[in-house]
């Protein structure tokens, strides 16, 4: 990384950031005497925490032609793998000590930034605020938003709000000035079995984010109880077993319900794990909001029909990937999501999320595809050829992903590994014999991860309207007067930057750049990257590029001449689901109504839920009065119509004489 880039990088985004919850336990890590002996399974007390599942050691190997002895006994191979497992734990503990040593220095820089924001926060005096914590798979990011007070002063404004013509929208929130981030991801706390330890670690983890928020908003401290805080977790938490996920989220709620720790407005529902489809929808909302094509087209009641312009959203996170767009014909056979902002119109959108198809999980699955099912000798003595590595490179990896007899990823295994668990070690290498062959093989391996073989039934049932892994997807909208373009962000942006592609590039340009990058050895690749990629991640970027190409082209179905716009920032704001989520949440908050003397009614307070109920009661009472008046008018009109009807018509009674035709009744005949 260049010096300027490092200077502009947020301190809490540093690659070697502090894993705070393990730092607090670093006193228990004393020496390497507690590591498992060679060939000894890891004891339950030593079993690795959840966040080390599939964790890879950093690449410390030299980049040279890879050769291993080929005739070692099986016992020797197992001993070597056991030694690698020991080395893993030794390196892990060393990293924790380094993180603990770096923590104080990082927090000093963090405190300095908060002091600067305290003196010059840049907040407007008349606005209200809300906090959104994006708890992702690699870290948590806090966004502070502001918006105009949700107050209604007169009957016209009330009618406007009820009819969907009045929408609140957030800003700035996604600017770096009002954003703070820390690592690791929230899912790592599943390693805590004891509730008290878990809650203490969770409070310590979240504290820098809340200190940051209180520093930025200090001038409005008296109103903290009115400002809601939301925590929404994504793929890192979705990947966890249900029990672990519930336990971690319960701890988050306990911490945020502590008013001594959290002075902001919080209810339990405000902290939860997003579904993948919610994340996809909020991606779409955030993109279209930033491009100015959402709010005005949403006002009113009913369904949005024939919008003037919309854009699609493509998000590639660490654990999952999302696609979402407005289907112009509104023919969506599956994965339909009705998105509505407050009382406004709702949008019929296609949205889908693919868990374990995020970049980090794709890398883990790729490595497991190569190594799973191999013997210890094949994995750690001979080594395994990986065409996606640069020529002359090698990488030590650790995984617990296995393959079924049909070739699908599974957590089930039958072998016994030196780790004592399902984890196994492997050394991947590229001998650099045939660069052209390497590129083709890497692209093929990346395509295999999409599991297009599962599309057979989808292709039959949906007549070929399918994306990947057997999932239905309508035809992609193409550029037109009513559809702009697809906006891709997150890991798409990292790959685009590495390949030196322009913000708008075709799939063909992506393919050509990928072929070139995958033909380079490690040293040439480092020159090619020009400091845009961390050294310890550089060797993975051939695979990353190949995976992005296959996901877009053979997964979602973009054609080679289709253009994708890739950017993490639009109009100075960071792109992502958090903005769309806050836009949605703001418009679920109750309105306050001014009385005849223009004095505000009591607003909902964090410590006084009754005031919120009274406000809602006033609003509900008003709505009830309007409905009662409407019903009165309806019944009056129906009564009036009946009166007029009786005045204009009279029944003709049946004749009573013997000459009657025997009819039981006569029709209504108009009076002449």
TrEMBL record:
Superkingdom, natural source: Eukaryota
Q: Name one GO biological process term.
A: nucleoside diphosphate catabolic process
Residue ranges spanning the membrane: these are: 617-637
Asked if the Swiss-Prot or TrEMBL record annotates the protein with the keyword Membrane, the reply is: yes
- Spell out the catalytic residues: 279 (proton acceptor)
One cellular component term from this protein's GO annotations in UniProt: membrane
Keyword annotations for this protein?
ATP-binding, Coiled coil, Hydrolase, Membrane, Nucleotide-binding, Transmembrane, Transmembrane helix
GO molecular function ontology, one term from the record: ATP binding
- The UniProt entry's coiled-coil ranges are 93-120
Q: Which residue ranges does the record annotate as region Disordered? A: 1-51
Residues annotated to bind ATP: 318-322
**UniProt xrefs under Pfam families:** GDA1_CD39 (PF01150)
Q: Which family does it belong to?
A: Belongs to the GDA1/CD39 NTPase family.
Protein name (record) = Uncharacterized protein
| Organism name | Entomoneis paludosa
């Amino acid at each position: 990384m260049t010096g300027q880039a490092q200077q502009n990088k947020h301190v809490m985004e540093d690659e070697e950031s502090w894993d705070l919850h393990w730092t607090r336990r670093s006193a228990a890590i004393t020496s390497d005497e507690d590591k498992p002996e060679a060939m000894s399974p890891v004891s339950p007390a030593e079993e690795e925490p959840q966040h080390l599942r599939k964790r890879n050691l950093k690449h410390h190997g030299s980049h040279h032609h890879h050769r291993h002895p080929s005739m070692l006994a099986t016992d020797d191979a197992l001993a070597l793998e056991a030694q690698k497992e020991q080395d893993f734990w030794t390196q892990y503990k060393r990293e924790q000590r380094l993180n603990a040593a770096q923590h104080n220095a990082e927090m000093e820089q963090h405190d300095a930034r908060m002091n600067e924001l305290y003196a010059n926060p840049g907040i407007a005096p008349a606005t209200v605020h809300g906090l959104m914590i994006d708890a992702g798979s690699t870290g948590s990011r806090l966004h502070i938003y502001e918006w105009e007070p949700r107050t209604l002063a007169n009957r016209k404004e009330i009618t406007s709000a009820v009819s969907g013509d009045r929408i609140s929208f957030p800003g700035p929130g996604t600017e770096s000035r009002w954003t703070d981030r820390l690592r690791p991801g929230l899912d790592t706390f599943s390693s805590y079995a004891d509730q008290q330890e878990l809650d203490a670690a969770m409070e310590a983890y979240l504290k820098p984010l809340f200190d940051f928020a209180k520093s930025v908003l200090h001038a409005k401290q008296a109103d903290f109880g009115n400002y809601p805080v939301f925590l929404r977790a994504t793929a890192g938490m979705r990947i966890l077993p249900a029990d672990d996920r519930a336990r971690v989220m319960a701890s988050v709620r306990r911490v945020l319900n502590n008013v001594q720790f959290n002075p902001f407005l919080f209810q339990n529902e405000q902290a939860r794990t997003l579904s993948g489809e919610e994340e996809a929808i909020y991606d779409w909302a955030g993109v279209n909001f930033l491009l100015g094509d959402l709010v005005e087209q949403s006002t009113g009641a009913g369904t949005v029909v024939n919008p003037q312009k919309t854009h699609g959203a493509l998000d590639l996170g660490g654990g999952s990937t999302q696609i979402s767009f407005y289907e112009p014909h509104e023919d969506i056979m599956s994965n339909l999501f009705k998105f509505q902002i407050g009382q406004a119109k709702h949008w019929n959108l296609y949205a889908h999320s693919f868990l374990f198809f995020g970049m980090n999980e794709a890398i883990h699955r790729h490595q497991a595809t190569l190594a799973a099912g191999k013997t210890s000798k094949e994995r750690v003595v001979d080594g395994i050829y990986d065409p996606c590595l640069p020529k002359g490179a090698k990488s030590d990896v650790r995984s617990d992903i296995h393959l079924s007899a049909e070739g699908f990823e599974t957590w089930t295994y039958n072998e016994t590994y030196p780790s004592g668990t399902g984890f196994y070690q492997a050394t991947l290498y590229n001998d650099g014999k045939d660069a052209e062959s390497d590129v083709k093989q890497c692209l093929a391996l990346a395509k295999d991860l999409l599991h297009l073989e599962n599309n057979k039934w989808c292709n039959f049932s949906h007549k070929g309207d399918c994306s990947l892994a057997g999932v239905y997807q309508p035809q992609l909208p193409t550029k037109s007067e009513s559809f702009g373009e697809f906006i891709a962000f997150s890991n798409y942006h990292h790959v685009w930057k590495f390949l030196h592609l322009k913000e708008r590039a075709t799939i063909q340009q992506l393919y050509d750049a990928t072929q070139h990058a995958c033909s380079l050895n490690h040293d040439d690749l480092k020159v090619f990257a020009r400091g845009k990629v961390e050294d310890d991640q550089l060797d993975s970027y051939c695979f990353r590029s190949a995976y992005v190409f296959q996901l877009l082209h053979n997964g979602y179905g973009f054609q080679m001449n289709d253009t994708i716009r890739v950017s993490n920032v639009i109009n100075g704001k960071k792109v992502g689901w958090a903005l769309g989520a806050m836009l949605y949440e703001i418009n679920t908050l109750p309105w306050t109504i001014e009385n005849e003397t223009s004095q505000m009614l009591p607003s909902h307070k964090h410590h006084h839920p009754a005031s919120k109920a009274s406000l809602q009661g006033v609003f509900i009472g008003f709505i009830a009065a309007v409905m009662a008046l409407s019903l009165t008018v309806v019944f009056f009109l129906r009564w009036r119509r009946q009166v007029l009807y009786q005045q204009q018509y009279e029944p003709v009674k049946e004749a009573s004489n013997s000459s009657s035709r025997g009819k039981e009744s006569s029709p209504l005949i108009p009076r002449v």
